[in-house]
Amino acid sequence: MTDGVFGRDGGHEQVVYCQDPQTGLKAIIAVHSTALGPALGGTRFYPYASEQDALNDVLALSRGMSYKNALAGLDLGGGKAVIIGDPATVKSEALLRAYGRFVETLGGRYITACDVGTYVADMDVVARETRYVTGRSRDDGGAGDSSVLTAYGVFQGMRASAEHVWGTPELRGRRVGVAGVGKVGHLLVGHLVEAGAEVVVTDVSEAAIDRVRSAHPSVEVVADTDTLVASDIDVYAPCALGGALNDATVEVLRAKVVCGAANNQLAHPGVEKLLDERGILFAPDYLVNSGGVIMVSDELHGFQYERAHRKVSALYETTKKVFALAEEEGVPPATAADRLAERRMAEVSRLRSILTR
After folding, report:
1. 296 is in an annotated binding site
2. Which of 68, 80, 91, 311 is catalytic?
């Protein structure tokens, strides 16, 4: 991974701590880059063990959004926000509106949307206090649930991965392991079942498992992610929280392809090389899971589902382009994806120096 202003080690432009004792709001907003435009990224609502854990997460997630938006061809920079707390117990209208007011103070440098622990209805509440929010309900003029096109984009990335490894994008008969069948994962399972894949899943939530079993009785369920990773699968799809791929995981992983919806799947730099050395194709997470941000960004121009769907369908070709560059330059796909994103950020940022009236 390259260094420098547009490299992975480049600093963030702005980090803002937000606190409102009356509502219990404790949040951090991180703007990584506005080289391509306003920083767009979702709001994660999660019971972090410490403020430092929350900071580490928002810094990594916002950095990833810069790369995701760049590689998706959007004129948007990267940002992210985290709200510290258990959304099941502390989320309220007042807290979300207080958060919206903090977003408004940034004057459009950061545009928020949904993420883990926040939903379309929450964004409708946040929008009562700020103009800089997307991922809203259709009743309020928004795009609706972005999980729909996130899952579809991962499916397209998986098809491109299958073509690269097995010579055909068909997934019929392939055994695919999905870890996490929440907002995105259960929709991905639907695409896979329809495509004729054999699907095995796991999730810490019994309710999530029951929903998948009810919709797709043919799906197999295993006890935990460790069991899934070590099982006889062709494709591994991490669709829960980040850090799913570490040294131990790669050592026992039997799949030939890793392609999932989770953000920041590589637990630390160097894991991408371990995957490459073992002959496991890694579809960069921020590439294949960008369908959601493509969908909510379309909302900024007056949402049209057909237009957004076409853009997400193009992730199939973009994924193939990343694999081709990786082979051409002799680097893992994660490095190739970084290079493509960094080149676009640098080139467009340079153009912004040309003064216009």
Report:
1. no
2. 80
The reply to whether 184 sits in an annotated binding site is yes
- Condensed to tens digits (0 to 9), the pLDDT of residues 152-196 reads 999 999 999 999 999 999 999 999 999 999 989 999 999 999 999
Give one word for 207, left, alpha or beta, with left for phi > 0 and alpha for psi -120 to 50.
Answer: alpha
Binding site annotation covers 173?
no
Q: What percent of the chain has pLDDT over 70?
A: 97
The amino acid present at 320, given as its one-letter code, is K
- CB 333: neighbour CB atoms within 10 A? 25
Is residue 180 annotated as involved in ligand binding?
yes
Q: Is 80 a catalytic residue?
A: yes
Q: Return the pLDDT at 349.
A: 86
Per residue in 271-327, pLDDT (tens digit) is 999 999 999 999 999 999 999 999 999 999 899 999 999 999 999 999 999 999 999
**Is residue 182 annotated as involved in ligand binding?**
yes
Q: What is the mean pLDDT of the chain?
A: 94
Amino acid code (one letter) for 335: T
pTM of the full structure: 0.89
51-71 and 333-351 helices, crossing angle to 10°: 80
The domains located in the chain, with CATH, are 14-59+76-140 (3.40.50.10860), 147-290+318-341 (3.40.50.720)
Interatomic CA distance for residues 18 and 71, integer angstroms: 30
- Type of residue found at 31: V
